Amino acid sequence: MSQKRDFYEVLGLSKEASTDEIRKAYRAAALKNHPDRNPGDKEAEARFKEATEAYQVLSDDQKRARYDRFGHAGVEGMPDMGGQDIFTHFQDIFSELFGGFGGGGFGGQGQRRSRGPARGQDLRVEQRLTLREAMTGTKREVVLRTPVACEECQGSGAKPGTKRKTCGVCEGAGQVSTARGFVMFTQTCPECRGEGTVVKTPCTSCHGQGAVEKSRKVVVNFPAGIDAGQRLRVPGQGMPGALGGPSGDLYVDVDLVQDERFERDGADLVTRAVVSFATATLGGSSEIELPDESKVSVDIPAGTQPGEVITVRGKGMPRVDGRGRGSLQAVVQVQVPKQISARAQELLKELQAELGHEHEDEGAEAKAAATSS
Prior knowledge:
Strand order of the largest sheet: 10-11-15-14
CATH superfamily of the largest domain: Urease metallochaperone UreE, N-terminal domain
Keywords: Chaperone, Cytoplasm, DNA replication, Metal-binding, Repeat, Stress response, Zinc, Zinc-finger
Subunit structure: Homodimer.
CATH class of the largest domain: Mainly Beta
CATH topology of the largest domain: HSP40/DNAj peptide-binding domain
GO molecular function, one term: zinc ion binding
Number of strands: 15
Structural class: alpha+beta
Pfam families: DnaJ (PF00226), DnaJ_C (PF01556), DnaJ_CXXCXGXG (PF00684)
Helix content: 25-40%
Strand content: 25-35%
Largest sheet: 4 strands, mixed
CATH architecture of the largest domain: Sandwich
Protein name: Chaperone protein DnaJ
């Protein structure tokens, strides 16, 4: 499929669907399209994979929230669901819903599978940056309290000097099968919980879990120009893998604190240039301090009107890809003094009278031109 369909559409649900409705919709779609019931039907197999991926996201509250907010981009970075791997990746889900499938598991091939070392889950956190930090780039320590691989047993869960033993119930398959009439149902082994091995002599540090909970700090580099809604990936800083497997990744979602002086529009910065009436009338310049504390001189042409926007190219936010910077958009605001001296009042009255005469002369010229024509 060149473009993924909406996960709610795949399962025929509304965005307000409950967890139970999601499970029921997936159960119906999986039963209808499972390859065991549609041998050789590639379209049914594709629909089964599509429904399974949708269920994997929508049945997880955290992933569903990310999907509702950002769409498919919000759940990218999950393990690849393409090809035949989807059947083994979601075997536990299917076993939970159906108690296994006829023929000894997915595909009806009766294969025995031990889960073995597995990649750890990904973690997602949010970090709020100031506009200045986003403009200059910054490093920040992100504090995580998560399980980490036990140093004593190297994540195996077994006491140093000993090893995990093959499960005696499933004989290392990670699954057990039960005959119900003419159908063989397969489910996760309750003894080893699908691992295929058990710990006979647990590690004293992690009590056989292979991981201990600790606070740790991860240094995250935020590049100059990063914007709200973007996400950074820090490889290997997620949850530890099972049985010494590789750790997952850490995903950092970026948000920006609202700035008092600037608004951001992509790579452009929008702000106000406050000038006097004289500067707006005669022309001049206005100095603006950017979020990174550098200063830009904005040229104010003579006769500039309030609300006009003056663009200064190359003085906005740097682009994350390093291809230059955006523009500074200065909205002109004419400052009117609340109190003025007696001399200033006289001068303004003279100016008002002079401008009034000019308007009268312009009106007379226009009237004469209209009469002659």
